[in-house]
Amino acid sequence: MSDKHLSSQFDSELGSVSSRVMELGGLVESQIRQAIYALSEFSVEAANQVTASEAKVNAMEIEIDRELSSIIARRQPTARDLRLLIAISKATANLERVGDEAEKIARMVLSIIGTGAPRALPSLELRVAADLASGLLRKALDAFARLDTAAALAILKEDDLIDKEFDGFVRKLITYMMEDPRMISPSLDLLFLAKAIERIGDHAKNIAELIIYIVKGADVRHSPLDQIELVVK
Length: 233
Description:
The protein is globular. It has 233 residues and is mostly helical. Helix 5 (124-146) runs parallel beside helix 7. It has helices at 8-41, 44-52, 54-75, 79-115, 124-146, 149-179, 184-216, 225-232. The protein has one domain (8-232): Up-down Bundle (Methane Monooxygenase Hydroxylase, Chain G, domain 1), CATH 1.20.58.220.
């Protein structure tokens, strides 16, 4: 993930912590897959599996942060190495929050099942958005492993698709609630679920921005796309 150093031990440490981030990413991706399956099949078992893995995600975040702190204290890195370690810390935090959103989806699915009327709601569009968000996170992790700024830029552009799916879904839910007041409670659950999916896309976008920060040394958060394109070129 980074250039070679005179200290092979430093390279080994960087490689180790980078691998741990990818491992955490894989675990979180698994949570999302289970959450999407729980949504698609209204599966109590799958939803419970998502919540059960939350403790492991939290523990891994703490372990990675501890390892990063140790590397920074001992190596006192500068320039790109320091940016890399800072970015890894922020990416880890984003991945942990993706895990939180997956758990939120699982809890919402259990709540919707509990209402007894899950099939009456427009969940198909939500599954499409969930697949988009999951795919975006997978691309972000792959781009992070390769420090691919072009792929990072493409991810930032693709995040707009998830936002549009979310806006369209909200309008549809409002229609359902207006037509049948009995659908208000389960519809609100789906609304919170949709917001959790949108947030997964946001965290993937954050990771993409971190890639540009590592490689280009530019903080592109809150910057318009056309300006980010100039930085990446």
